[in-house]
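fyi for ur records
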Amino acid sequence: ANYGNIFVGRQPILGPNLKTIGYEVLYRNCESDSAIIQNEEIATAQVLLNTYLDIGLEHVVGTHLAFLNNHTQFLLDRHCEALPKKNRVVLEILETVEPTQRVIEAIASLSQQGYTIALDDFVFHDRFRPFLELADIVKIDVLGKGPEQLQHETRQLRDYRARLLAEKVETREDFETCKQLGMFYFQGFFFYRPDIIRGREIPGNRVALLELLGKIQDPNISFECLVEFIRNDLSLSYKILRYVNSASVGLPRRVESIEQAACIVGIDRIRTWASLIVMATGKGQPMEMLVIALCERKCVRD
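which gave:
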């Protein structure tokens, strides 16, 4: 019965004066307060698409920041670069992301482009120093930790410029302790539980999307051919125009055509969004299956 409905969860993040400064945007596949995530990559793609293209960033976070989770592959594939930079999103690097050279370079590049970087569920370890050098915000899970442990954890981070965010704050005592330790942002059930934002999905044609992905990845495709292909897919055209015209992109005037959109935001950006749209449509299929299907289609055509 949920077909056509899409959901994202959001939990407010508060500043020092306890005013909401942003929301962590969470993957949800129904109206319950938790999520079963079978595939991180598809979940992340769906959160982004639901937030940006289907429901619309303004409806999910208003004028506040959107804190979005990023796992390793997402960073390496540079999908984050499809997101607006300034004062709109905070890229949360999940605690499962290992600080390999390629990952560090990807995060450094995002930081240089003006993205705000947050480290999620952070636990200090020497090997994470490169992440700390790049981070604007460090999230510390305070659940079940006493004042001594929290003091120890905050002291380790004193030499870095990142502001500290206390997450999973569930009691007034937790909140008071965190405030005394100089934490700057706060998130947790003590303030708000996550709520669910609901929207309608704009259905897309899976086969057309696969073909599009093949076209888009083809380095020799002409600008005109690509634009024509996108224009023929109503769902995709609609989503891309909606993204380009959203307040988060901040263009001076409304864009009416895919040509204009591609000229303004660039083919690379359109490429990234189209890949995300295909990835998120793989509801029951891992991305590898889509890629294999795509290769088979290409072989048949060639």
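The longest strand covers residues 5-14. thats all i got for now
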